[in-house]
Amino acid sequence: RESFLDTTIIVEDNRIVFNRFQKPICSGRFFNFYSHHPLCHRRGVIICAIDRILLLFHPKFHARNLIDAVHTFLENGYPLYFIFATINNRLLFYICKYKNSHISYFPKREIAADKYFTIPYVKSVSESFKLIALKMNCKLAYSISNTLNKYIKRGRNQLDYRFITLRGTQKGVYNFFYEDCEVNYVLHEKKIKD
């Protein structure tokens, strides 16, 4: 039994089995239901968690993992009916997909690339564009403007950081220290204009 990131790897009868792993210090907080994001994003959080449980973890752990996921969603403000409606729709999706996976007599047809219409998300205003997008045979995508990108910048390792010139290009050198091993990591470095 070995835990890595958020997955436990178990070897049983010469087979590898995966289960969900949660660190004891995990707060259980993530994308809150009452955040200022479209409903499709909030539904997507549940769908991603359910997909991970159903597709990655062993079936003998599904019941326990689904119960834990429902409790986590409830702690983050998700309504119970919304959680179960989304889980039910996702399970039906996989059941229909599995039942129809053996049918191959349907002719293959070319699927056109989906067209997307992107607008900034404003609660109760952006949803009114759905009908317009449907009439134009487009899918509606929302962009979120209230992110923390202007306040939180990507961090750099400040220890032993310097620039050197290799073959006329500017490179960044990072030194990482682990026990008795000193490692230098060289990467391309560019300044992004803000």
Order of helices and strands: EEEHHHEHEEEE
- Which of globular, elongated, flat, extended, rod-shaped describes the shape? globular
Low-confidence stretches: 157-171
For the biggest sheet, the summary is:
3 strands, antiparallel
The helix/strand class is alpha+beta
Q: Which strand-content bin applies to the residues? A: 15-25%
Report strand order across the widest sheet. Answer: 1-2-3
Q: Overall pLDDT, averaged?
A: 74
Helix content percent band:
25-40%
Indicate the radius of gyration in whole angstroms.
23 Å
Number of strands: 8
Give the termini distance in whole angstroms: 46 Å
Give the count of helical stretches: 4
Pfam families: HTH_animal (PF26215)
Organism: Trachymyrmex septentrionalis
Protein name: Helix-turn-helix domain-containing protein
InterPro entries: HTH_animal
Blueprint (SSEs and pairs):
Blueprint: E1 2-4, E2 7-12, E3 15-20, H1 39-56, H2 62-75, H3 80-99, E4 116-120, H4 130-135, E5 139-143, E6 162-166, E7 169-178, E8 181-188
Parallel strand pairs: 4-5
Antiparallel strand pairs: 1-2, 2-3, 6-7, 7-8
What features would you describe in this structure?
The protein has 194 residues and is α+β, with helices and mostly antiparallel strands. It folds into two domains: 1-106, no CATH class; 107-146, no CATH class. It has four helices and eight strands; from the N terminus they run βββαααβαββββ. It has helices spanning 39-56, 62-75, 80-99, 130-135, and strands spanning 2-4, 7-12, 15-20, 116-120, 139-143, 162-166, 169-178, 181-188. The strands form three sheets. Strands 1-2-3 form a three-stranded antiparallel beta sheet, with no helix packed on it. Strands 6-7-8 form a three-stranded antiparallel beta sheet, with no helix packed on it. It has a two-stranded parallel sheet with strand order 4-5. A hairpin with a 2-residue loop joins β1 (2-4) and β2. The model is unreliable at 157-171 (pLDDT under 50). This is Helix-turn-helix domain-containing protein. Residues 29-88 form the Helix-turn-helix domain. It holds the Pfam family HTH_animal. InterPro entries: HTH_animal.
